[in-house]
Design a protein that fits this description.
By secondary structure, the chain is mainly alpha-helical. It has helices spanning about 20, 25-35, 40-55, 60-65, 70-80, 85-100, 105-140, 140-150, 155-165, 180-195. Helix 3 (about 40-55) crosses helix 6. The protein is elongated.
Length: about 210
């Protein structure tokens, strides 16, 4: 009597022993599925883990403290921050990549993405503040536009800083004077003080007036 073909549902699923439990998640699942990753796939996985580990290492300490990562990985990250030589950092990143095999990568990717979005927002705010400062120094019309967008500004202080910054004459290679820096500080503080969604001031560009 001919044998009936075995269905996929009858396939024996190997139990996860101690050796498999120590595998990275991708290799463990591959072992369960009976799939052997190619050498190139394993190399790419390690490269991805190294890059993720390096990105996690770049997070500020307060954000690192919120991550649930193994103590060995945190120690390795601290060591990477202290390492200055190129070769030493390269070896340390490789070591961090190996430790990353035992971490759940998704929360770490989310933490890195969240930090990068915040950094991009800060950079945009910085560029906007620099733009306003330069416009205030270039033309008197910009001051009227600024006061319209940010009516809570101390106009007398703003005018005084603009006048002082305009009078500062810089020699080649000389740093900007105090008034120039204080003007930027005032502009940035006023922009940050505007609640999100409160009019169009936070993202306004005085060069585009409807």
């Amino acid at each position: 009597m001919p044998r009936e073909p075995k269905h996929a549902s009858n396939r024996q699923v190997p139990e996860i022993d101690a050796d498999m439990a120590d595998m990275p998640v991708s290799k463990r699942q591959a072992a369960i599925d009976g799939i052997t990753p190619s050498r190139n796939e394993l190399k790419q996985q390690m490269q991805d883990l190294q890059e993720l580990g390096e990105a996690v290492s770049a997070l500020p300490p307060d954000r690192l403290d919120k991550l649930q990562i193994d103590e060995r990985l945190r120690d390795a990250i601290d060591e990477l921050r202290r390492t200055r030589s190129f070769e030493g950092r390269r070896r340390q990143v490789q070591y961090i990549g190996k430790l990353m095999k035992h971490e759940n990568p998704e929360p770490l990717r989310e933490a890195v993405a969240s930090y990068r979005v915040g950094s991009a927002t800060d950079t945009l705010a910085l560029h906007q503040a620099e733009y306003w400062r330069d416009q205030l120094l270039a033309t008197d019309d910009a001051l009227a536009l600024w006061v319209k967008e940010y009516p809570s500004t101390d106009v007398q202080q703003l005018r005084s800083l603009v006048r002082s910054a305009r009078k500062e004459k810089l020699e080649p290679g000389e740093r900007h004077g105090r008034a120039y820096r204080d003007l930027f500080k005032l502009v940035k503080e006023q922009m940050l003080a505007v609640p999100e969604g409160d009019g169009d001031a936070a993202g306004a560009d005085p060069s585009h007036d409807d």
